[in-house]
Write a structure and sequence with these properties.
Layout (H helix, E strand, L loop, with lengths): L2 H8 L5 H12 L4 E8 L6 H11 L3 E4 L3 E10 L2 E16 L2 H15 L3 H12 L3 H9 L3 H7 L2 H14 L13 H17 L1 H8 L2 E12 L3 E2 L2 E2 L7 E7 L9 E6 L7 E10 L2 E12 L4 E3 L5
Parallel strand pairs: 4-12
Antiparallel strand pairs: 1-4, 2-4, 3-4, 5-8, 5-10, 6-7, 8-9, 10-11
Helix pairs in contact: 1-2, 1-3, 2-9, 4-5, 5-6, 9-10
The chain binds zinc ion.
The site of zinc ion has 8 residues, from helix 6 and helix 9.
Length: 298
């Protein structure tokens, strides 16, 4: 048994996204990753245990200063209330010193605003295909995105990538990227072999019917102006009105319908991997003056 993998599978310090990335590094298929480790009164010892297991297996890491994190506590009338849940530490984890040294180069270039050179090295550090890194560099420029995609095409691409490559941590260059497809397949096999319990949980499909509340429409801007003044579809961020597995989820979906903030829609939600698919059933109401109440700014 791999003690580190066993710890990561069981610990509540990591969400599924962090578990996936960690298990990929532990299995040896991914050279490095960044994950948040969350500490609450329920798992005070997890930081100590995590670092002990990392050291025992020869992984190199750096850990950032703690920061607080909030989650939605409840939704009453028009108020979405957030509450501080604990603190989190950001971990950069590397399979060996060589990868850690490359990461240092990447950070140094990024700090000097040399993003193009930084991204090329960063892509290697995290194990991303070079075609995807090249496209990522181009898409840093919203003007390029405006020329290349319509609003619908852009968000459709993001949605199809998410569905097609659930085991990848990066945004592939296209949903047809062959290298991303091969990597997704390799990662899936590695997780299935190393962590069958997590694999089962991560791939499990759950369907719920519940109301969702539209929060805002997603957009890309240059100096406060949208890059897509014309659009035939809308990509919204919404909040599931009821808890799923003890948590309120934020989700996004693409729709032909025009909604405004506070619209309530009955929807069918499909949860699988690290995404939620939304099927709109019908608009059922509206909440006036929807507001988030947060004590801490993140
Ligand atoms: Zn690619």
């Amino acid at each position: 048994m791999n003690l580190l993998a066993d710890f990561v599978e069981k610990s509540v310090a990591f969400d599924n996204d962090a578990k996936l990335k960690l298990l990929l590094v532990i299995s040896g298929v991914k050279p490095a990753t960044f994950v948040p480790l969350r500490i609450t009164p329920k798992n005070l010892d997890d930081k100590y245990h995590f670092e002990k297991h990392l050291r025992e297996q020869g992984f190199k890491f750096t850990v950032a200063k703690p920061r607080s994190f909030e989650e939605i506590k409840d939704i009453k009338k028009n108020i979405i209330r957030w509450q501080m849940q604990g603190i989190w530490y950001g971990y950069d984890i590397f399979k060996n010193d060589k990868v850690k040294d490359e990461f240092k180069k990447y950070k140094k270039l990024a700090r000097a605003n040399k993003f193009k050179q930084a991204d090329v090295i960063g892509g290697k550090v995290y194990g991303y295909p070079s075609c995807c890194v090249r496209e990522f560099i181009k898409e840093r420029d919203p003007k390029y995105i405006a020329k290349r995609y319509s609003y619908s095409k852009y968000f459709k691409k993001l949605q199809s990538i998410e569905t097609k490559f659930p085991f990848l941590a990066h945004t592939p260059c296209a949903s047809s990227c062959k290298r991303a497809e091969a990597l997704n397949k390799k990662y899936r096999a590695a997780i299935k072999k190393l962590a069958p319990r997590f694999y089962k949980e991560f791939t499990k499909k759950q369907v719920f019917k519940m109301p969702i509340i539209v929060n805002f429409e997603n957009d890309l801007m240059i100096k406060g102006q949208t890059i897509w003044p014309k659009r035939t579809m809308h990509n919204y961020t919404a909040i599931a009105k009821k808890k799923i597995d003890k948590k309120y989820y934020l989700l996004s979906f693409l729709s032909k319908n025009e909604y405004i903030e506070g619209d309530v829609i009955k929807a069918e939600l499909t949860l699988q991997y690290n995404w939620i698919k939304v099927k709109e059933l019908k608009r059922t109401g509206h909440i006036d003056q929807l507001a988030h109440e947060r004590k801490f700014m993140i």
